[in-house]
Amino acid sequence: MPAEQPSVLLLPGLLCDASVWPAQQAALQALAPVHVADYGDCSSIAAMAERALHDAPAGPLAVVGHSMGGRVALEIWRQAPGRVVGLALLDTGFQALPDGEPGVAERAGRMELLALARDQGMRAMGQRWARGMVHPDQLDTPLFEAVLQMIERRTPELFAAQLQALLGRPDATDLLPTITVPVLLLCGRQDNWSPVARHEQMQAALLSSPSPAPVELVVVDDCGHMSTMEQAPAVSAALSRWLAGCLASRAGLL
After folding, report:
1. Which residues make Cβ contacts (< 8 Å) with residue 166, sequence separation at least 6?
2. N or C: which end of the chain has fewer CB within 10 A?
3. Ramachandran region, residue 67 (left: φ > 0; alpha: ψ -120 to 50; beta: rest)
4. Residue 254's pLDDT is what?
């Protein structure tokens, strides 16, 4: 009996929606059905993963997470590894909120942005926050405006819920070596939020498994944190190659 056809589950990052994925949707739909998750008002990474799994098509999933969505992807592996045929983790991280001063500083910085969103609106907050999220060449371009419009579609209440999820994020250090499906790690070379070095740490942890699955690290040049929008062709090509490998592995061709 042939194996059930997997679907692709796309998991957006903080304050992001389907508008970060159109190029990837178009590319991946040639290989498998594609579904974009919506976290609603979930305020924990675990709840986001539960909702994404509940709303996703039935059956096996090739899971793609960008930024916060990468953390949700790892949580999906924790909760339902039997449904996952591959993981793609883009511009993301794996560690919990750090102890001591670094954690205090992160919390304070995020709360300052939330206060700005409540006092002056989401677009004003985005004008400050998003300037560090893209390659300098993308500042004040139509792409940057698209990022601002996406942020403006969200509310301070949703922002607060997602910040709570990020500040309470689980640590996935011990989870990475348990992953037994093909993994793509992808990062913009100029991503200052989730730098290349962090993805190299993830690659080392994945490969520390006694029986590591295939792991590829792709670094995209001239690209900041919003890789799916900034360098859409390169990201789509990497994801298509990864998905083809997941499908071939599932079919027993690799």
Report:
1. 14, 45, 68, 71, 110
2. N
3. left
4. 47
Distance from C-alpha of 137 to C-alpha of 95, rounded to nearest angstrom: 30
18 HSE (CA, 13 A, CB side): 9
Query: What's the half-sphere exposure (Cβ side, CA atoms, 13 Å) at 144?
Result: 18
Q: Both tokens of residue 216?
A: 């590829």
Query: What is the Cα 166 distance to its own chain's centre?
Result: 12
Is-above-0.85 flag for pTM? yes
Phi, psi at 60, each rounded to 5°: -70, 155
Which pair of structure tokens corresponds to residue 125? 């907050």
pLDDT tens profile 206-226: 999 888 889 999 999 999 999
Distance CA 196, CA 220 (A): 10
Helix ranges, the chain (H): 22-28, 45-55, 68-79, 100-120, 122-129, 142-152, 156-167, 196-207, 227-230, 232-250
Closest CA to 47 of 179, 155, 154, 170: 170
Query: 218: which 2 tokens?
Result: 């792709």
In the chain, what percentage of residues exceed pLDDT 70?
A: 98
| Mean pLDDT, residues 79-87 taken together | 97
Alpha carbons 71 and 92: distance in angstroms, whole number = 7
Q: What is the DSSP letter of 179?
A: -
Helix (H, G, I), strand (E, B) or coil at 240: helix
